[in-house]
Amino acid sequence: MGEIENAKVAAVFEQYPLHIQEKLFFLRKLILDTAAEADGVESVEETLKWGEPSYVTKKGSTIRIGWKNAAPKRYALYFNCNTKLVETFREIYHDSFKFEGNRAIVFDEADVLVVDELKQCILATLTYHTRKHLPMLGL
Predict the structure, then answer these.
(1) How many Cα neighbours within 13 Å face the side chain of 133?
(2) CB 21 within 8 A of CB 10
(3) Phi, psi of 39 (to 5 degrees)
(4) Handedness of CA 40, 136, 83, 15 (dihedral sign)
(5) DSSP assignment, residue 112?
(6) How high is the pLDDT of residue 92?
(7) Could you read off the pLDDT of 23-41 as tens digits, one per residue?
(8) Backbone angles phi, psi at 38, to 5 degrees
């Protein structure tokens, strides 16, 4: 998976409760692994946006991962709400995930993640600008 090179991102991860860190590190690994396996994704920048670890590609839309004190048993993948991403994910994967509006896939800490479907959502996000014109984002 690799160490976190951005000290500010690392500091945010360290602020999360240990059991949530584990969950978010898994999502981080899934994002980075999916990017490494994807055609057309040259690199991923790991940075902070809205105070949360974020992953940006040249031809994609930003993915953020996070946890909030207000919902301590939940964590999420956040997407740009001005895209068709969550709308499309909801239509295709309505039985696999819980959604928050048009901006997030949310998980309870006890959830078993459906990795293949989640990787498809991540890939669609990392390559969004090359597929936004396709029906159902090409999924």
Answers:
(1) 2
(2) no
(3) -75, 135
(4) negative
(5) P
(6) 96
(7) 999 999 999 999 999 988 8
(8) -85, 135
User: Which residue matches tokens 């029906």?
Assistant: 135
| Whether pLDDT at 1 is above 60 | no
Calpha distance 115→113 (Å, rounded): 6
Task: Specify the DSSP element, H or E, that contains 107.
Answer: strand 104-108
10 Å Cβ neighbour count for 117?
A: 17
CB 131 within 8 A of CB 39: no
Read off the pTM.
0.94
Structure tokens at 123: 């890939």
Two structure tokens written together for 36: 């490494």
Q: How many whole angstroms separate alpha carbon 111 and alpha carbon 126?
A: 24
Beta-sheet strand order (sheet of 98-100): 45-49, 52-56, 63-67, 74-79, 104-108, 98-100
pLDDT at site 3: 85
Q: Is 67 in a helix, a strand, or coil? A: strand
To the nearest whole percent, how much of the chain has pLDDT over 90? Answer: 92
Token pair listed for 25: 């590190």
Computed over every residue of the chain, the mean pLDDT equals 94
Q: CA separation (Å) from 131 to 11, 81, 134?
A: 34, 17, 5
